[in-house]
Amino acid sequence: MAVQGGMVTRKYGIAMYVTAFAAGALLGFGMSDRSGIQPGYFEKQEAPAYGVSEVKALGSDLGKEYEEHFKRLYKE
Amino acid sequence: MLIVPGHVEKSGMNAVAVISILSMNAKPIGGDDMIKRAKHLLIAGSALLALSDMSLAASWAHPELLLTPEAVEKNAGKADWVVVDCRDLKDYAKGHVPGAISLGKPCKSALRDGTARAFKDIKIYEKILGKSGIGNDTHVVFYGEHKVTDTFKDATVAFWILEYLGHDKAHVLNGGLDAWLKAGKKLTNEPSMKPEKQFKAKVVASRIASNEEMLQIAEGKKKGITVIDSRTKAEHDGLDIRALRGGHVPNTTVNISHKDTMDQEKDPNTGKDVDNGYLSPDRVEGFFKNFDKNKRAIAYCQTGTRSTLTYLEMRLMGFKDPANWDESWVVWGSNLRYPVANEQWINFERLQSAEASLKKLQDSMPKKEEAK
Predict the structure, then answer these.
(1) Which of A75, B59, B248, B278 has the fewest CB atoms found within 10 Å of its own CB?
(2) Who has greater pLDDT, A51 or B298?
(3) How many whole angstroms from its chain centre is CA B141?
(4) Contact flag B193-A59 (C-beta cutoff 8 Å)
(5) B134 and B239 in contact (C-beta within 8 Å)?
(6) Which pLDDT does position A25 carry in this prediction?
(7) Residues B282, B57: contact at Cβ < 8 Å?
(8) Is the ipTM of this complex over 0.85?
(9) CB B339 within 8 A of CB B250
(10) What distance lies between CA B300 and its chain's CA centroid?
(11) Which CATH superfamily is domain B63-203 in?
(12) pLDDT value for B33
């Protein structure tokens, strides 16, 4: 009985991990889709220290379209 | 004096008299007629006085350069008009005139190099303006904001740059965003972009004064040019030093602080008169009336920023050959090759002492870790 109970708990645990991972991925994708900012993952620069704001690209707050527009405006 | 036909002395005749003559007939005067005619005379005289008052009020020679909020609202949506918000992008994002675009940076940074001078490479302007939707046939309205962000001068810098590039359709919103809000108009935080256009500059080199020209003026080799120092009196007199040396360029014609030329209103907190970011011909003309508008006139300040307001004012008043000197005092005052009137040297001892006081104050403050 005890072995069976442990297996059930492990199954629930795995299901929880899978659900959490899927929800996280979906949430991340959704945010990226809305903000136009690509998730960095491994190629992302080192995150700034807590409380220190990251240098944002000009116009990024207005959306990807504006970020690209201002980049074109001031490109050397 | 009552004047009747046939008794007008040429030398003493005035406009009121003329009206009175026109309102009378040649019959003898007396009784009720007299009262009636006196009334007519009074009415006609008052009307003429009002008219003469109006003609005495100054007016701009080029009023089309300065727009009202109503004019901006009327034209903002047109395909050949672009309204540019000259403030920082974060202020633009919070709220701006509907349909206005941003250059991504405050205009004075976007349209000048890191040393606050006009770009030498004109292609930079052609790219920035063209990609922003400004073509050679586009009317461009620049606006800043006076009270909070002090960016009215960003609009005048942009105006001057466009005129330097030979664009004759540049305008400034009088009173900036303050005027827009005062007129009860709404803001939006919906950003705007305009379709790209071709901008080809036709540089009017005389819109910028050079150090060489200023040196000739300072040394008395070039005469007949009106030179206006747009800085404060303290800067002009060398008491407020913002370069190696304080003072002003020799042969400067006049010191007219740019702040003084704007309309003034009472600050509710201090009760003092402060500039409000509006320009009116009566006030501005009062400062410039003694100068020959047909002569070349050059404005300067610390970095050639405040003096762009003077440049706009000169254009409004019809000066034929106005210029802004963008090197201005920051370069002149620190270059020992150039002569200085009222020369004052920066007091490094005082600077060091101020720095030491600041460090002492800094040391006396609790460190971040201690504060936690």
Answers:
(1) A75
(2) B298
(3) 14
(4) no
(5) no
(6) 83
(7) yes
(8) no
(9) yes
(10) 13
(11) Rhodanese-like domain (3.40.250.10)
(12) 72
According to DSSP, the β-strands at B296-300 and B264-266 are unpaired
| Domain B63-203 identical in fold to domain B206-350 | yes
Q: Is B181 on the interface with A (CB under 8 A)?
A: no
User: Do A74 and B89 count as a contact with CB atoms less than 8 A apart?
Assistant: no
Query: Residue ranges per domain, chain B?
Result: 15-56, 63-203, 206-350
* Token representation of residue B157: 């810098």
CB spacing of A59 vs B132 below 8 angstroms: no
Q: What's the rounded Cα separation, in Å, for the pair A15 and B284?
A: 77
| DSSP letter string, B134-164 | --TT-EEEEE--SSSS--HHHHHHHHHHHHH
List Cβ neighbours of B158 (8 Å cut-off, separation of 6 or more).
Answer: B84, B86, B107, B108, B111, B140, B142, B170
Q: Which residues contact B252 (CB under 8 A, 6 or more apart)?
A: B227, B228, B229, B236, B341
B68-78 tens-digit pLDDT: 999 999 999 99
Instruction: For residue B47, give both structure tokens.
Output: 């009307």
The answer, for B131 touching chain A at a CB cutoff of 8 Å, is yes
User: What's the pLDDT tens digit per position in B332-344?
Assistant: 999 999 999 999 9
CB pair distance less than 8 Å for B90 and A61? yes
Q: Provide the CATH number for the domain formed by B206-350 in this structure.
A: 3.40.250.10
Task: Determine whether the interchain pair B131/A72 forms a contact, defined as Cβ–Cβ distance below 8 Å.
Answer: yes
H helix or E strand, kind and range, residue B248 = strand B245-248
